[in-house]
Predict the structure.
Amino acid sequence: MLGPVRRPGPVRRPGLVRRPAPVRRRGPIGGVRTCLVTLAVVAGLGVAVAAADQARHHPPAARLFGLVGSTGGATPGAPAPQPASLSVGLRVVRLVDTSRTIRVGGRTVPRTLLTYVRYPAVAAPGRIDVPNATPATASGPYPLVVFGHGFAVTPKIYASLLQRWASAGYVVAAPVFPLGSEGAPGGPDEADVVNQPEDMRFVISRLLALNRPGAGSLAGLIDPSQIAVAGQSDGAETALAVAYSRRFHDPRIDAAMVFSGAEMSGIGGYSFPRGSPPLLAVQGTADTSNEPRYTYAYFQAAQRPKFLLRLLGAGHLPPYTYQQPQLGIVEAASVAFLDRYLKREPSALHRLLSAGDVRGVSDLLAEP
């Protein structure tokens, strides 16, 4: 198994996680040719973004560019119709990876991931987690979504988003990264981000083990053939690596949602062959921590089906934690994406296109 890997990096403010210099997290440096290719990729997506803006007034041009959505037909505060909500249970499980270690207080200890698992439960419907509620196994099994938090925070600040997924019929697991989270021993260490993809893969494996008959309270709750990874900021980089990097790619992944993320350097690059997991990329256009060009670059490289949800004028962390109507848009669009590509509901595509297009707030580039 891979041991701890560290790379130098600046200490970042909690939740405001991204690169101060243009060369940050771009993978192995390949000289002038690499720079030119990167600029060409970003410029190419810039043309597509401009085409989508034109499509608001000239729909046939949008079809020529292969774009769906971005029609500007919705109005702020008018969410797309949503499926019925289920009640949400919450269990906290301690997952210990004895094959990898970290240093805590001068001691070497196993790498441990405290993981918050939300799931459809037998309880009164609502957005508040019900600790240790009885799982609604009669309606399952449910697809699994594993979510990675940003640097120097914990999954707690994303509670609304994670609850929304669980209430829509998903098991949602959010681990606390041992060295990249708020309260990490010795303070958060962003250099540990390169070890987080293996953390996410480990969480998937352990949850599938706990899903076996007789394994405990989560037994039989997860559909192992329907798994997505998601994350925000450094957690988004983690999810992107698990879905598409050469080093950490996990073939069990069926879909990926990347919120204000980018490709991670030092892990051997990325590959987006045909048949890659469907992608939902979300990016605030005024995000100065993760500049939009980083999202545009990997989105351009990805194969379809892929969707780029742009939050107009939005920053780095608030759209995924509390800012409205942006958070509601992300919730509605992400549920529709999961319904389409994990539950394989054809009608969910229409909900996704509608949810992502709110005049003056968001637009959506779509290549189903």
